[in-house]
Amino acid sequence: MTDPWVALEPGADPGERVRVLRRAHETFTAAGTVPRPVRTVVADSWRRSARAGVGPDGAARVELSDGDLGAYRAEHPLAAVMPLFRELLGTFAADGEHLLAVCDAHGRLLWVEGHPATRRKAGRMNFVPGARWAESEVGTNAPGTAVAVDRPVQVFAAEHFIRRVQPWTCAAAPVHDPRTGRVLGAVDITGGDGLAHPHSLGFVQAVARAAESHLALLAPPQPQVDTPELTALGRDEALLCTGGRRLRLSRRHSEILVLLAGHPEGLSGDELLCALYEDESVTPVTLRAELARLRGVLGPGLLASRPYRLTVPVTCDVAVVARRLAAGSVTGAAAAYAGPLLPASQAPAVVRMRERLADEVRAALIARGDPDLLADWVHAAWGEEDLDVWRALAAARPTAAVRARLAALEAELAAPAGWDRAGRAAGTRHPAAWPGMPRTRPAGV
Predict the structure, then answer these.
(1) CA distance from start to end of the chain
(2) Which long-range contacts (CB under 8 A, 24 or more apart) does 320-325 make?
(3) Quick one: pLDDT at residue 9?
(4) Known InterPro entries for this protein (predicted)?
């Protein structure tokens, strides 16, 4: 395969490929091993799906309907580019008996449009607006996998994890906020085997890039004074926008800037050393060398010493969330919270900041009791096993699906240590169990 993201090479026999994939899928579901012909992107997705507890005979759940769906769509950033999606993909979808679909960053379908007969057929597997097609819910599928791996991807036939989806082929590409680089969702084309062509993946990727360009034109003009912006929530490597540059920082440099942004008065070398390193044997020389490298990345004038501090105010998304919480704007804080702070960081001070901010947001959401905000939290990677928030959601929106998920979590957490919810020896944590986001156990366990 010349392009690992394309499902079918030109000239390949689709029928034979389907037979090979079906055998591979049965092998994986029976034995947990992936035969060699399966693409790496699909094999990795199958493994993530299985670890998330998705079964091959599962189905998508509709989470938003009627007024809730309409209100959510109206406020979503991708609403602004739906006319563009319809112009570029809508006619292609309708003429080719395909579907145009757009999902949010959690894999929740916001729009599904196209050929009426194809829509009715897709509706039988809940490929409808308001349904959640995240990988962690329905396994491998183009829109869900595209937002999971942040790459354009094509999924062909039996590459889908759930059997009822295997008659379909789809191609999707993530759409990013042009200012922050954050994934807003994905645009997808879904239909028959004819979509298993490199051109369909290239087409949907071009449409996603066009949408990002359009969003950039719609963005409000930037102020004349350049205030550096640091984005560190939900990212292992922070993004710094300053002086017209977008700098993706290393993990250590990300930790340093987050700490200095939170301490505008500055930190001494000893304070910074204790904040960054668990190992007491790390010397000040090591820290000074790291700061010298960071100064070279940032350029002159931004990082001062004695004490170490930033010479200009830096807008950090951590501070934005904290400020909105302090003002009582729970909805605004939840919207700005894109995930745990530098989730892979083990720097002691960053871990404390990460846990404190997450706990404050969780507490505010539980106290507010808004079912939509609670649902967004538990359907994000960091909140999928958050028992307290699931309980709050069950109290606010006691649907059968929510009660079933809560019961499953409580049963899992009540099981003997070292065993998962299926009664098997547990070897690894759930992939969505982000650092700094430990699951809570029921009272008395």
Answers:
(1) 51
(2) 321/233, 321/357, 321/361, 322/357, 322/360, 325/360, 325/361, 325/364
(3) 72
(4) GAF, GAF-like_dom_sf, OmpR/PhoB-type_DNA-bd
Mean pLDDT of 171-199: 89
> CA–CA separation, 132 vs 126, rounded Å?
9
Domain made up of 14-218: CATH architecture: 2-Layer Sandwich (3.30)
3-state class (DSSP) for residue 170: strand
CA distance 301 to 242: 12
Give me the count of residues in the chain.
Answer: 445
Closest CA to 246 of 144, 177, 172, 198: 177
Which residues, other chains included, contact 349 with Cβ-Cβ below 8 Å and sequence gap of 6+?
Answer: 259, 274, 275, 276
Positive or negative, the Cα torsion across 40, 162, 10, 153?
Answer: negative
Q: Helix, strand, coil shares of the chain as percentages rounded to 5?
A: 50, 15, 40
Domain residue extents for the chain: 14-218, 227-368, 369-445
CA angle 290, 296, 300 (to 5 degrees): 125
| C-alpha distances in Å from residue 39, one per residue of 7, 83, 159, 236 | 8, 34, 9, 26
**The pLDDT of residue 247 is above 70:** yes
- The pair of structure tokens assigned to 258 is 């987050």
- Please give the structure tokens belonging to residue 131: 């349904």
Q: Which residues pair with 62 in a beta bridge?
A: 131
Q: Which fold has domain 227-368?
A: Arc Repressor Mutant, subunit A (1.10.10)
Element (H, E) at 245: strand 245-248
d(C-alpha 333, C-alpha 160), whole Å? 35
Q: Which of 145-159, 218-232, 323-337, 363-377 has the lowest mean pLDDT?
A: 218-232
Instruction: Say if pTM beats, i.e. exceeds, 0.85.
Output: no
